[in-house]
Amino acid sequence: QLKENDALDKLDEVKKEVAMVREDLGYPPLVTPTSQIVGTQALLNVLQGERYKVVTKEVKDYVKGLYGRPPAPIKPQIIEKIIGDEEIIQVRPADLLKPELEQCSKEAYEAGAKSPEDVLSYCLFSQVAKEFFEWREAYERGEALPPQVEEISEETECPSKAPIEFNITLHGEQYHIQIAGVGNPIEEGKPYFIRIDGKLEEALVMPIREIEVGETFESLPEAGTLAGKRPKAVDIGDVSSPMPGKVVSVKVSSGDKVKKGDVLLIVEAMKMENEIHAPIDGEITEVYVNEGDKVNPDECLIKIMPS
């Protein structure tokens, strides 16, 4: 996450913040899931430049007592900063759970589930399961191809030479890159299998501009003229995500009136859900994202016209 936010220089600061957040939250054990809860909040505190300016849903639930009683008491000022005047539960958290399987099963089969395994997948990871169900339906209709990997070799015929193994230097850090293979294009882009310092990663590449062999860059259109590209978040009413992630839910539509602090959308990052709030009072004029979209911190996701 630090690398994606161009903030690797803040690693030591995040390490110190992890210890401070753990103390704030009553020393939860650093095991799943509380280790992710603490680590993600520490990262947000550092990236935002203000402690608890952005708080994940999981941290709020933890402070409310939905993960059980913390090993040590949480200071009142920390509770107020994280959940305000919301109530802390005084009972066993599991006693508050309502039966969900019947409703979840209904939603799962409506979304394309075909087996009990599909239902469980949907109940645990609804967004991921829906995407898989949609792909499976398209594949069974012959409209989608399975991901097949073909080897890239030095002998592969190409109209011109392009490197398949190279070093790059970014912000003073050097990385060894090797393109190991490429898959068939899918809706989200063409999968490339890349080794970065020996670690195999999959990257989906969606071409925005292409250039023919021998064509000059001067003949290409400006990047800003390309359709479908989200604008940069520059104005006071431009809403952005604090870190790269995936849109889980969009709560507003164009034309809606909102107040400062209203929840506009939820973005999942590092397995945590982050509520994105309205920075000002106003009217929604543009919504640039849908559920399932991947987003970056510098992008305008929603535009608000000040009232």
3D structure, described in words:
This protein is α+β, with helices and mostly antiparallel strands. It folds into 4 domains: 2-93, no CATH class; 100-141, no CATH class; 165-205, no CATH class; 238-306, Beta Barrel (OB fold (Dihydrolipoamide Acetyltransferase, E2P)), CATH 2.40.50. Helix content is 26%, strand content 23%. The chain has 7 helices and 13 strands. The protein has helices spanning 11-24, 34-48, 57-64, 76-83, 101-111, 116-124, 126-140; strands at residues 149-151, 165-170, 173-183, 190-196, 199-205, 238-239, 245-250, 257-258, 263-269, 272-277, 282-287, 294-295, 302-306. Helix 1 (11-24) crosses helix 2 and helix 6 (116-124) packs across helix 7. The relative contact order is 0.10.
Give structural attributes.
alpha+beta, four-stranded antiparallel beta sheet, globular
